[in-house]
Amino acid sequence: MLGVWLVLAASGPAPGQVPPARPEWKLNLAKSTFDPGPPPRSTTTTLFTAGRYLKVVSTTVDANGQISVVEYRVSPDGEEVPVTGARAYDSLSMKSIDTNTTEATRRKNGKVVQVSTRVMSADGRTATITTVGTDERGRKIHDVTVLERQ
């Protein structure tokens, strides 16, 4: 679930442009699935425009009540950027697939560990993010995370 944020960032901007910030997104746990689990208790992601980047701050309370904060700045041009606070990955890059879809590639020490595909609803209020790969313990994951704009 960590870092689910980044894929919220793009919704088809022209190259070199940062999409407008969508201030806050919250996890809809009832509509989300986490395999192998367990699911987090909550996640809130906040987006900030920062020059040509979009700053992403995602705060998650895990199943044990521990809080983690993942932060990074998304580049609109597919640049690989550093990530702090994520246990499973330390960098990511993002690309637009179409107006409502983005794909993020997450790496740990240069090796791809996860790929997340975000599909934005037509009204722009719901983001469905499908993440496949491995977690920080090397377990295969397949998560479908639904975030709703607040």
Walkthrough of the structure:
The chain has strands at 24-27, 33-35, 42-50, 53-61, 67-74, 81-82, 91-98, 101-108, 111-120, 126-134, 140-149. 0% of the residues lie in helices and 53% in strands. The chain has a single domain, classed as Lipocalin (Beta Barrel). The chain contains no helices and eleven strands. The protein starts with 23 loop residues before the first strand and ends with a strand. Strands 1, 2, 3, 4, 5, 6, 7, 8, 9, 10 and 11 form an eleven-stranded antiparallel β-sheet that branches. By secondary structure, it is mainly beta. It is globular, with a radius of gyration of 14 Å.
- Helix % is under 10%
- Poorly predicted ranges: 1-18
CATH architecture: Beta Barrel
State the total count of DSSP E strands.
11
Give the strand content: over 45%
Number of helices: 0
Distance between the amino and carboxyl termini? 19 Å
Largest sheet: 11 strands, antiparallel
Q: Give the helices and strands as they follow along the chain.
A: EEEEEEEEEEE
Query: CATH H level: which superfamily?
Result: Calycin beta-barrel core domain
Quaternary status of these chains?
single chain
